[in-house]
Design brief:
It contains 11 helices and 5 strands. The protein is α+β, with helices and mostly antiparallel strands and 299 residues long. It has 4 domains: 57 residues, no CATH class; 46 residues; 55 residues, no CATH class; 86 residues, no CATH class. A 5-stranded antiparallel β-sheet has the order 4-3-2-1-5, with no helix packed on it. The two termini are 34 Å apart.
């Protein structure tokens, strides 16, 4: 079971442990967080550390997936065939005049008059799942090729949640947490809690090391407040740019423009401070996010 704690024999309460794992697999991360926190309270040693680890992960995943539009496995889309033989797939609504409005998983909507539509039919659930399984395999084959592996795994989990493959998502989120670049996932998708969640994660994975919040990675002291402002503004749009969210394409464009502005500021600072590793790290993060915006805009 995903979300299970090692050394199960050390835990006196097996039912709460199994219940927490079930909540985690069902993507009820708020419930899983509370369950793991309770397990950590009544245990000690390795079992307590394992429960605390999963409690922190549950909080991170709860925040990062909170706004993901979820689809049940049985909620297959509909297929619209137009009179010009074009076939479109998405969620369909029909008004009193017979006009058909289709919304794709990418958040794009289009309306067609009755004379433009040849037929509308529900896609078989098994067929739809098989199609999405093929797309998931394609995505997993490219993990780490262009983006940090953690971001690729998170995007794959996001794809699963919004296309009815939710039973695959928990495993992919765990892989994201174990892959290179997971702090970037926390920082970019953690919303207003990003700094606190990143500090908790750094404290868990690097005990004894003072965690650096998002702002400290941008600048030395207060020397680059403009870059930080641009970066934080970009993140607001970036978090709203995922497929299925309202106005995702426009939000993606706004995020990219602000990331590029922040990159320009950091690049100028880097030229004046060529040996500054924190500036170099932030510059790499910005380049990665800009590339992700470009890549998703093309797709």
């Amino acid at each position: 079971m995903i979300g299970q704690i090692p050394q199960v024999g050390q835990i006196p309460h097996q039912v709460p442990l199994l219940a927490a794992g079930a909540l985690f697999e069902d993507l009820d991360f708020a419930g899983a967080r509370a369950a793991y926190a309770e397990i950590a309270r009544v245990t000690d040693g390795e079992a307590r550390r394992g429960a605390r680890h999963l409690e922190i992960l549950s909080e991170i995943f709860d925040r990062a997936t909170r706004n993901v539009p979820r689809r049940l496995p049985a909620d297959a889309p509909q297929e619209v065939t137009l009179t010009n033989d074009r076939v479109l797939i998405g969620q369909v609504t029909t008004d009193v005049l017979g006009n058909v409005t289709l919304k794709t998983d990418q958040g794009i909507s289009a309306t067609f008059s009755p004379g433009q539509v040849e037929s509308v039919r529900r896609v078989e659930t098994a067929t739809w799942r098989a199609k999405n399984e093929v797309e998931l395999r394609r995505r997993l084959e490219k993990v780490g090729d262009e983006l940090p592996a953690a971001l690729d795994y998170f995007q794959a989990a996001y794809f699963c949640i919004r296309t009815g493959l939710g039973d695959r998502a928990a495993d992919l989120l765990m892989k994201s947490s174990q892959a290179d670049g997971f702090p970037m996932v926390i920082e970019t998708l953690g919303g207003d809690d990003a700094g606190r969640l990143l500090a908790r994660w750094e404290g868990l994975t690097r005990p004894g090391v003072e965690p650096a919040g998002p702002a400290s990675a941008v600048s030395r002291g207060d020397s680059l407040p403009e870059a930080e402002r641009l970066y934080q503004r970009a993140l607001v749009h970036y978090r709203k740019s995922w497929p299925g969210m309202a106005h995702a394409a426009d939000e993606l464009k706004k995020a990219r423009a602000l990331f590029e502005d922040a990159r320009d500021v950091v690049e100028r600072a880097k030229m004046a401070n060529p040996d500054d590793r924190k500036l170099e790290a932030r510059l790499q993060d910005l380049q990665t996010l800009i590339y992700d915006c470009i890549k998703r805009a093309i797709l």
